[in-house]
Design goal:
two-stranded antiparallel sheet; Porin; globular; 16-stranded antiparallel barrel; mainly beta; 4% helix
């Protein structure tokens, strides 16, 4: 299936690139492949991304991807039994620019809408969102605001058995046995961003994110260890998540080096607090090659109801229970190297001179039950005219 998908994506790229004889607009197509491997889970993800100019002021984007997952992780919902499944996702977005009124502080308006649909055996998701931006002070400052709604459905069909998985209890407050085969999950998100050019070579940015989650937040198969045996986990049906982030970018012309620093603070009403500082160094090598190194540190508190082992729940000793490693207290590190090369480095001409080849390698240290992970990413982006 993965080989067939890759061949199909490659064929689509070639058809689009070779089918146009008269140029009216610019676009780009990217073929990407990601390989992720941790202690008990492997994910192979082929992707196709497209970008197409629509008139002089519009930009259409789209993507298709498949996650091919193989895992024996109880936290993945397989109760330590090996399983495999595929997740399919497709999305479209459109952005449009409008000049600001004459003699006003606003130089440009930008509005955008997007949507995506994903499906896997036990999870279906539909997302729609919109955002708006204004550019001010001769385009030296940008302010943006946006939001979205995700309508998801979790079911018990992913246990890879004719009868499906265990019955679900959609109400996280109930101690009664589950009787449902599917439960809803709704996420409502808002965000705002601001950036300011400080000089020819310096830029700073700020952002704030807010998301409210309502519905079945538990894993449909995950079991919690109690003194009386294993029982299904039970998480709250509501979660309010917030985050603020700041970033700064500095370009050093003498060495053709870009320095990018960022910090993000996250908190929610489950008492999870997380700090994420990050540093990236991007170095140009001539006009056609760039290399970068990224280091990211992450640390968080545990959710207020997380425990490795709970008392006997015969009398409902604990209102909420979870075995999710992502809700434990842990820290971790990401170290990433990236290399980008333009086609003209190899003597290519025409559109292939502007083609970009990228390779990314990440090593992730995770001090939790997931363990360490390796991520390899390869991409080919080809510009075209149509």
């Amino acid at each position: 299936m993965r080989l067939q998908l890759n061949v199909t994506l490659a064929s689509l790229v070639c058809v689009v690139l070779l089918s146009s004889s008269v140029a009216h607009a610019d676009g780009a197509l990217s073929m990407r492949g990601v390989y992720y491997k941790e202690r008990s889970t492997r994910v192979i993800q082929p992707m196709l991304d497209g970008m197409f100019e629509v008139g002089e002021r519009g930009l259409l984007t789209g993507h298709l991807l498949v996650d091919a997952i193989t895992s024996a992780s109880a936290s993945s919902g397989a109760a330590a039994e090996p399983f495999s499944e595929q997740r399919y996702e497709g999305g479209l977005g459109y952005a449009h620019e409008i000049d600001g009124p004459q003699d006003s502080m606003v130089d440009l308006f930008r509005v955008a809408v997007e949507g995506k649909v994903s499906k896997e055996p036990d999870y279906r998701s539909v997302y729609v969102g919109a955002r708006g931006e204004i550019e001010l002070a001769q385009k030296n400052a940008v302010i943006g605001v946006g939001g979205g709604v995700s309508l998801d459905e979790i079911n018990n069909e992913g246990a890879q058995s004719p009868m499906g998985g265990p019955k679900l209890q959609c109400n996280g407050l109930s101690l009664e046995p589950g009787d449902a085969t599917s439960c809803p999950l709704r996420t409502y998100s808002l965000f705002t961003t601001a950036s300011q050019i400080l000089s020819r070579n310096a830029l700073v940015g700020l952002s704030y994110d807010l998301a409210k989650i309502n519905g079945f937040t538990s894993n449909a198969y995950r079991q919690v260890n109690t003194d009386g045996g294993f029982i299904p986990e039970r998480q709250p049906n509501e979660r309010l998540r917030q985050a603020i982030a700041a970033s700064a970018r500095l370009y050093i012309p003498r060495t053709a080096t870009a320095l990018i620093a960022a910090y993000r603070f996250y908190w929610d009403n489950w008492d999870v607090h997380a700090h994420t500082p990050e540093l990236r160094i991007v170095q140009a090598v001539g006009d056609t090659i760039d290399a970068s190194f990224r280091y990211r540190y992450y640390t968080q508190d545990a959710a207020f109801f997380y425990a490795k082992r709970y008392p006997d729940q015969t009398m409902g000793a604990s209102e909420f229970l979870t075995a999710d490693p992502k809700l434990s207290a842990f820290d971790g590190h990401i170290m990433e190297v990236k290399l980008g090369i333009l086609g003209e480095t190899f003597g290519f001409e025409g559109r292939w001179a502007g083609a970009r080849i990228e390779g990314i390698l990440e090593y992730i240290v995770q001090h939790n039950d997931f363990g360490n992970a390796v991520v390899a990413h390869a991409a080919l982006t080809v510009p075209f005219e149509y």
